[in-house]
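Hi, here's the filled form for the chain we discussed.

Project: internal
Contact: R.S.
Residues: 153
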Amino acid sequence: MSAIYPFKHIIGENEVEPDGYVSCLTYLLWTRSAAQEHSAKQGWTPERYIEIGAAWVVRSHHIEYFRPAFAGEEVVIDTWVSNFGKTRSLRKYLIRRPADDCVLVTAETNWALVDIAKRRPRRIPQEIIDAFTLVPECEEPKPKQAPEPARTE
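And the returned structure, exactly as it came back:
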């Protein structure tokens, strides 16, 4: 499996605000869903994490919005693991619309692995680290320059 995982999604009516734009919180939900599905594809389902008494929690998010998305459009959330530390991992995302290959959002999340019972960080087991191929910055997908919106005059 590729180190960069493409999570595909069709935007539902329930994911847009009354103004017609996708909610900013929805983009965050997509990043979480993409991370969970990628992890599961690598053999680390939520149930498996529970079996070892661990869970990933967010330490921080950074997200940058470039273009809007709308109901009915397909988006792809490309996600990859950038690094592992002792108790933390950096995961990155590039959200794009494949119809025009327009980059909508770039994001990254610093995740911390916690011991569920003790509610404190724990060392990331080697078997988790071994399940993922790290993507060095020089091999990350680079956002293409988003086309300027069409002008109507």
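Let me know if anything looks off before we file it.
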